[in-house]
Write a sequence for this structure.
């Protein structure tokens, strides 16, 4: 695998975001394990990845646009992937404990829908069945992954695209974490009187209460947005 750190200072160790590429396709040499972590999610950017999760029945296949919430302590294992698969992984805190699980085999077919894992529920959001609704900035649309509900409002993940008349208005929010990754297209972020031109594979983290606006989005712009909390307040 190749890893690219998307938040170089990791906000003092509070968060980590990684762009991961799986170079060789086929079965992956993974093992059943779990993480002692506050928040962790995986977004499939390219290719496909087949993963087994505790209590989720048969293995699932993540394809481009799909997203999973990995609740704390859920046992899981990567089984196989396509060559060149890419995922974006977000976690908090940046440093966390990973434990090997030797008593459980995965997949095992066990299905426990809605199970609670340390206050969170597993989410497998599939892009093909997602719905676009108005985003918090006029003229933009968002496809919500449902992670806000599954974390009781702690965190949210959405894919954002411009609508017919995207607004360049500035806004600011109370937030612990507000992160964007450019999946495709180009856009300019005006943050606290500074301009940042972003293109495919670029990312940006917006500081708490900093005024920002999205300007000159290309027609093919797609942004991955991750926020804590799920719903930002002015």
């Amino acid at each position: 695998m190749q890893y690219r750190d998307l938040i170089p200072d990791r906000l003092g160790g509070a968060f980590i975001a990684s762009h991961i590429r799986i170079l060789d396709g086929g079965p992956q040499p993974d093992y059943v394990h779990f993480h002692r972590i506050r928040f962790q999610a995986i977004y499939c950017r390219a290719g496909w990845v087949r993963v087994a999760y505790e209590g989720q029945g048969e293995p699932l296949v993540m394809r481009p646009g799909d997203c999973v919430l990995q609740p704390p302590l859920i046992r899981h294992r990567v089984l196989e992937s396509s060559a060149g698969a890419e995922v974006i992984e977000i976690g908090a805190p940046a440093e966390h404990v990973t434990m090997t699980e030797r008593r459980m085999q995965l997949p095992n077919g066990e299905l426990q829908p809605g199970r609670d894992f340390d206050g969170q529920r597993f989410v497998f959001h599939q892009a093909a069945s997602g719905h676009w609704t108005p985003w918090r900035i006029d003229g933009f649309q968002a496809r919500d992954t449902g992670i806000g509900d599954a974390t009781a409002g702690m965190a949210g993940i959405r894919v954002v695209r411009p609508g017919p008349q995207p607004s360049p208005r500035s806004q600011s929010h109370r937030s612990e974490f507000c992160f964007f990754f450019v999946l495709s297209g180009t856009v300019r972020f005006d943050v606290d009187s500074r301009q940042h031109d972003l293109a495919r594979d670029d990312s940006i983290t917006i500081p708490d209460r900093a005024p920002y606006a999205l300007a000159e989005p290309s027609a093919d712009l797609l942004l991955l947005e991750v926020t804590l909390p799920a719903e930002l307040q002015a």
Summary: The chain has a mean pLDDT of 96. The CA atoms of residues 177 and 197 lie 21 Å apart. Residues 2-127 form a domain with the Jelly Rolls fold (CATH 2.60.120.10). The chain has two domains: 2-127, 130-228.
